[in-house]
Design goal:
The chain is mainly β and 338 residues long. The chain is built from four helices and 17 strands. Strands 1-7-15-11-9-10 form a six-stranded antiparallel β-sheet, with no helix packed on it. The protein is globular and about 55 Å long. This is DUF1996 domain-containing protein.
Length: 338
């Protein structure tokens, strides 16, 4: 299966087939309003970007753009929230340290966070003429399986990958589990969401069933949507750059030579990689962007500078041990190997 790297995407940028933008860190907190709405604290730690109306409940009837006063994303009309679990390093002595995030290629100065993409059209389907549909107010979705611990467990998720970065621009090869060797420039995680909507439901019980992957091929190759999910949406995906460089000394790694990274929910295989999305674009801003030629500079969208992105933040709701210190256990008492 063909997975797109940033290098490939850059080659096609002149065709305006995608929107790519950074979102700085909003907060790192133990909240998950999609999977565990109203639960304070949620079982594991997340890193969140986007609008500052993010909260433990995220009532879908609320107007996210109206509730937010700022966003950490470059496009200032995007008050959506995007989040993933948090990566930790487990030292040989059994203690844990949170792995910081770093800005992606081309986004110097952005405070952590992630890079967000909305694919406007299939890159390899040059005859594609149909427009893609933007998500609607109240829409939300999830990708991945927090309990996955093998390649077979994630077979239904076509594009959840890791890249062991050799430098800021290297993006291949992409693998499905944690890299087994130190990565010179960190580890990138990529999460590509399904692109076919059932046309009716803004959410579903598992936050996934209202969406599906193309019947064959991929979104990039213009694969057709199944009859059960006929509406072709723009493809959303995240890239998160984890700055693992300070942890590259193998003398600090487990004595048996196994890789030392673990997700905040205890997964040391990497197969449990997952992400959440709650739509919150203002008005028809996203549809305008998807309808018009656009890449990093989008003439139909309002933008803000790095200083404004970095200055938007939220206080943590869940108070616990300093999440940036070395700790004996993962937040929530999670244990590596769970």
């Amino acid at each position: 299966m063909k997975w797109l790297s940033l290098t490939t995407l850059a080659l096609f940028a002149p065709s305006h087939a995608l929107i790519r933008f950074p979102c700085a860190q909003l907060v790192v907190d133990r909240l998950d309003p999609l999977v565990n709405p109203g639960l304070i604290p949620s079982p594991h730690l997340h890193q969140i970007v986007g609008g500052n109306s993010f909260n433990a409940t995220m009532d879908p009837s609320k107007d996210m753009p109206g509730e937010s006063t700022c966003t950490t994303c470059q496009f200032s009309e995007d008050f959506s929230n995007y989040w993933t679990a948090v990566l930790y390093f487990k030292a040989r002595n059994g203690t844990y340290k949170r792995v910081p995030q770093m800005a992606n290629s081309g986004f110097d100065g952005v405070k952590g966070g992630m890079t967000v993409y909305y694919m406007q059209d299939g890159l390899y389907n040059f005859q594609q003429t149909s427009k893609v549909t933007a998500f609607k107010p109240g829409f939300r979705m999830y990708i991945g399986d927090v309990n996955a611990r093998s390649k077979e467990d994630i077979a239904r998720f076509r594009q959840l990958t890791y890249t062991c970065l050799q430098d800021i621009n290297t993006r291949d090869p992409q693998i499905l589990d944690f890299p087994k060797e130190p990565c010179p420039y960190g580890i990138m995680t990529a999460l590509r969401f399904p692109t076919c909507w059932d046309g009716k439901n803004l959410d579903s019980a598992d936050h996934m069933s209202h969406m599906a992957y193309p019947e064959s091929g991929t979104f990039e190759t213009g694969g057709p949507c199944p009859a059960s999910h006929p509406v072709r949406m723009g493809q959303l995906f995240y890239e998160v750059n984890w700055d693992t460089r300070q942890f590259n000394n193998k003398e600090d790694w487990p004595e048996d030579g196994s890789q030392p990274f673990v997700w905040s929910f205890g997964d040391s295989t990497g197969y449990g990689n997952h992400g959440d999305y709650v739509f919150g674009w203002k008005g028809d801003a996203l549809q305008r962007a998807l309808d018009q030629p656009c890449y990093i500079n989008c003439p139909t969208l309002k933008t803000q500078n790095v200083q404004a992105m970095n200055s938007c933040s939220k206080d943590r709701v869940v108070t616990e041990d300093n999440i940036d210190d070395w700790v004996e256990t993962l937040p929530g008492g999670m244990v590596a190997g769970m």
